[in-house]
């Protein structure tokens, strides 16, 4: 008797302001939020993330009306944290998290994407703190992240998914495994960003197969390996690397997304797979055609 093939339809595909070159709440180089909503819907996506807090309307009634009339739903909000600095930053962290968590919950979403702070400035490359955490900082990072997961769940009914990210302390295979091994699976899940993980040398399929129960969310993107090699050689920070086009339109880069999606489907759990092609800054007419092509490509992968 053969085993049933996992259904890919438990993977819900969406996109995010990031794929429209949006990194900040307000920036003249970014498309207006109404244009983003219009185009993401027209490109064939049903789910979106909130993006940087303040970009989309912060009034839940307004945002619910604007998304509903375009047939869109919200999958997650995003917060930035520096939890390796320990209890001293908790109050500041919670002040940042609370408003975003409240809006996320009001929009019917269940996930909060948590991005660690950068160890170097993502524009200038100025080193802000050591690249490697001390053992004490690792303990603070894991303990405070568990605290965040508990508080967010109890107060807002949300599940945190921590996003390994270039130029942060949760980046490589070694550091991601260390983080997962030291945190409670009941409180902390992972947002696997295929592009960032490849950028930092990781294998997304291997991670899914090894830590499948910890994968709570996906960001889909690819890296141009030729550009990445130059970025590494030149020791570029992430912002200028994006400016060089290190994150590219699928299926031109790595990792191959079809095996990633197949491995994710084999988990047989409900997962969001949100397209994020970092493109800040970009011409306003550039994102939409890419978004349409990417949605067609993902359909060819079965999602």
From TrEMBL:
Q: Which residues form the Xylose isomerase-like TIM barrel domain?
A: 37-300
Classification via Pfam families: AP_endonuc_2
Top-level lineage group: Bacteria
Name of the molecule in the record: Xylose isomerase-like TIM barrel domain-containing protein
Instruction: Supply the source organism for this entry.
Output: Streptomyces inusitatus
High-level lineage: Bacteria, Bacillati, Actinomycetota, Actinomycetes, Kitasatosporales
